[in-house]
Amino acid sequence: MNQLMGIDFKKLALIDANKLVGSIGGLNCVILIWGASHNFCCIRIYSDAENFQRIAIMLLACAIGTQHQVYLPIDTGDLAEKWSYKWNPNPGNSFAKGIRITAVRPSIDQPKSFTYTPKRRLKQHPWHPWSVTCDVQTELPVFTLAGMPGETDCPRLWDGRRDLREPHMVCIGGHPKALIRLARLLLDYANTDTPPDEEIVLETVGGLRGVGPLSYEARFERVDPCCCAACVGDSS
User: Fold this and answer.
1) How far apart are CA 216 and CA 111, in angstroms?
2) What is the mean pLDDT of residues 127-138?
């Protein structure tokens, strides 16, 4: 499977990632930031299969494409409204307004192509036990937060003065290997031939891992469209 959403992965290195952003548009998903203090924070992303594919394509574009950084805004569509009840209005909780993807570009391990074969089933902690012994500096992605430009001043990571209720965007960064590994995971999770049994959890160092140092925990939950008669418009 080397083609998705009309994009040929073999030619992805020749495509300007910013041009892809225009064709992909805003993400119709919910990103919830949860944390009682600066000591713990979890970023939960609720989305359908197509939007996980869009995130994966942008990860690939940054890893093997021509762009160092891209930004994907969050579209406040039906999915966001449907899943907004998952939001806890207590202090320390908020929605993210977008995703920024940044690639660290060493000249050594810069891949030139990408080949994808879907897996049939994923575990809740998909990279364990490999993630416990891998090189966490270069092989695991990093999830952090940043303030929205012009909307908020966001303190640095682990700064206890941060107010998680302010407008934020999720920043995903890492070496090309890490971004490609995360893209492959999201493509597997977005494979509608395999119903997701549970959410995907990428824990911080000290747990089952899945994210790099100085990174927040990341969780993904696929929201499949409802097929009941009321939702599909079956009047029979």
Assistant:
1) 26
2) 92
Average pLDDT over residues 76-98: 59
Tokens of 41: 């924070």
* pLDDT (tens digit per residue) in 214-230: 899 999 999 876 655 55
Tokens of 115: 């080949």
Closest CA to 40 of 203, 170, 173, 212: 203
Confidence (pTM): 0.81
Say how many residues make up the chain: 236
What pLDDT digit, counting tens, does each position of 15-24 carry? 555 666 666 6
C-beta of residue 43 within 8 angstroms of C-beta of residue 93: no
Contact 78, 28 (CB under 8 A): yes
For the stretch 152-201, pLDDT in tens is 665 544 444 455 666 688 999 999 889 989 998 998 898 877 776 689 99
Structure tokens at 59: 């990860």
Q: Which residue from 48, 64, 4, 55 is spatially nearest to 25, judged by alpha carbons?
A: 55
Other Cβ atoms less than 10 A from the Cβ of 92: the count is: 17
Q: How far apart are the first and last CA of the chain?
A: 38
